[in-house]
């Protein structure tokens, strides 16, 4: 501690670095902390000697390392001092040598000034020598230019090109020789003036060469020599351009007008020539009927030019030119542009067909581009289609729309002819099978089949679109046909005494046969479709079969209306008391009318022949039962009931004989109802009516309470209790209508009974 105080008193007189003072403070603090920790316990004082020895060893080690560091530092300082001394000596030697060089340079400056005059004289001499040596060339330039121009005009192209190359060599040599002579601008312009005709020669020669190339397709068969000369000149120029580019690959300037790129220009001129010949052929034909001839002329012109290129011009050019491919590419591009223009015209269907047939079939046929030797060349050029798929689809749609317009007009005219035929005073024609028919289905079927056959010549896609269009138009025609049938029926009902109305039923039956023929034609068209086609004209697909069914049902309904119209006067006396008492001949008259109609129904094609017979049978039974429901006859005794039942049974036998052999009837034979009604009326015991009614309900579940009440009234012997029991049985045994059952009683309305006129029973005043 005493040593520490002593150092503190001497510290202000010495220079102390702040870092050293800070380090000393930290060291003292650390030592005090360590000492206080070590000597805080008595047992640690016993090892004080060990601590002192260890610290003295550490201190001596630190002193040794410090001495080693200082020693190495001093050795480095000494080595640096020796290097500085050596550098000082060398620097002095260099300074003396530099002073000597400066003195010698000052001496040589006087000699250089005397050499400038000699250098100027030498340059002037070189310039004069170059000028004198090139004067003969300069004076002969104009004569050579004139002679070369005459060679160009006479189309001696190889000789003219040789002279031109000689002139260009002279120009390059003279300018190179004079470039080292430091010519003035005036002298340089004078030299260029002498060679000014060379540029005109290049242009004139180029024009002649391109004129030969552009006319090569037309003149190759007569004299291919000019074309060969032009190709040789193009190759020479291409070689010169290539040599100059290799010589100045470092980026040096090229002579004026170089590179000329005449080979590239050669193909441009060839494409322009192809386009020019294409336009000349295109304008030879006008639009309209001449479009097919125009396309044929294009085919012959392209084929002839292609043969010229392959067999003549291809032999006159190097193989790497690929002249056939270049011609194919140029002609293909011209065709693409021209066909795009043609497609934008307002074309008729025949013209569109000509374009589609030419693009899809003729262009790629063996007679044109489909020749085996050209197929590989066409693939290598990757030319693409003449018309894009989108444009081709638009053109096909335009074709279908044009055909649809024409088909619609034809169908309208055919329908007008059909309506005119309906007014004839003679029966419809019969075919080889004896069925009625008119010309309408033949016209429609032939028209649609012809259009489908023509569309198939283009492709299945167009055929499917044409078929779909035909189905739409068929549906529209059948809808109009059905409307015409309705109007035909209205006109007939207005004037039934007209003589032409005698054949009304005949033409109705002919219309039904026509619909059957159209149905077969429609099914044939649908079978020809390779795949379902998207709806082109509306959101719903065409459904001509439904329109056919509606038209047939309407015609059958009109035929049944006509039958009912003729039967109506006869049916008025049916099932009346005179009919029962006096034997009214209503039933034979009904049979005669039916027989005449059934004979006409034979003229209808199946299955509508059977359908008409069945409808006539149903209608007759319905009208017979309707006449019964009017209660024209109410039995007063068992004898009348028996007589009425027998007359109904006789009518049933006559009608069955009439319909015998007319084909199988429906599942529920309507004529079977008449014997059932006869048995119901013939039944002697009224108490058995409940059982009889239950049997009737099983066979005819659509019979209602009103119908049964009328039948009970006709019997005339049913008490109130029996009536109630019968109605209870009817109510309890009313089954649902089975599947496939055709109701009979549903169409028969029971007439409302008139209310009795009653007066109140009041006493008179």
From TrEMBL:
<dbReference type="GO" id="GO:0006887">
    <property type="term" value="P:exocytosis"/>
</dbReference>
<dbReference type="InterPro" id="IPR010326">
    <property type="entry name" value="EXOC3/Sec6"/>
</dbReference>
<protein>
    <submittedName>
        <fullName>Exocyst complex component 3-like 1</fullName>
    </submittedName>
</protein>
<dbReference type="InterPro" id="IPR042532">
    <property type="entry name" value="EXOC3/Sec6_C"/>
</dbReference>
<dbReference type="GO" id="GO:0000145">
    <property type="term" value="C:exocyst"/>
</dbReference>
<dbReference type="GO" id="GO:0051601">
    <property type="term" value="P:exocyst localization"/>
</dbReference>
<dbReference type="Pfam" id="PF06046">
    <property type="entry name" value="Sec6"/>
</dbReference>
<dbReference type="GO" id="GO:0000149">
    <property type="term" value="F:SNARE binding"/>
</dbReference>
<comment type="similarity">
    <text>Belongs to the SEC6 family.</text>
</comment>
